[in-house]
């Protein structure tokens, strides 16, 4: 039924989100072979290095000068969920934590009272291209948790449920589907309370496939992003790619793919319903708190930067790993 759809809108950069989500961006870059520095083995001429967000030859450098990505920058007052379906991301932060993750892994970082981190995309393959597909989602923290200690966690792809049913694949990174629960989110996250029904799913439909999106217990915010395919129908409404659909969550919704595979991201959760004050990488409840965050960052640098480079990357031969602030090392 059409009344299950609340809104349909074109996807920009970043994507439009609903409370408790603040931001969602989709990166798809067809990077070329890598060079000795793990940057592109291609000319960087004609690029606005340091602020290269225009797709040229199928890829962007973002804020990177030699390696694509985002050199160190601060965050306060929210969480980042970074999903890397293709390629790799190298993480380094002011807590001394580090990691290399990709090929389906998810990083969940609670900025809390303040942290600096870098997110770089090392081009590890020198004999072939290095495609990158990445989502970054900003999930708000309620006022009570704005100043919790920062937290860094890895959700390895081996531990993330992937549920296959009747031509549909659902990857469950937060929430649960058909009794399959995602790994635990960060402890102070809005997603940590099951009553908030936070869900982050990738949904893939084979061609000409039907899938029923289950209803939630209560009416909450649910957004579905159709980012790849030829067309789909949502409650019998035909949708073209690169559109978002806000749905009535407490009703089942029928999705149908077209003649090609259809790919979706779903973000869902009970709204926090608190004032939001945003300035760049800081998200608080009032403008006064934003000013305080800026002043504290100028004074403390949120712990400083313990790494040799602002765009720190790890050794080329290093596999997937996570080094936690307490010194614990996990290698995959």
Automatic annotation (TrEMBL):
Pfam families per the UniProt record, alphabetical: Pirin, Pirin_C
Domain Pirin N-terminal: 60-139
CDD domains the UniProt entry points to: cupin_pirin_N (cd02909)
Pirin C-terminal domain sequence ranges: 201-303
Gene3D superfamilies: Jelly Rolls
InterPro entries registered for this protein in UniProt: Pirin (IPR012093), Pirin_C_dom (IPR008778), Pirin_N_dom (IPR003829), RmlC-like_jellyroll (IPR014710), RmlC_Cupin_sf (IPR011051)
Lineage top rank: taxon: Bacteria
TM segment ranges: none
PANTHER family: PIRIN, PIRIN-RELATED
Family: Belongs to the pirin family.
Record's protein name: Pirin family protein
Lineage of origin: Bacteria, Pseudomonadati, Bacteroidota, Flavobacteriia, Flavobacteriales
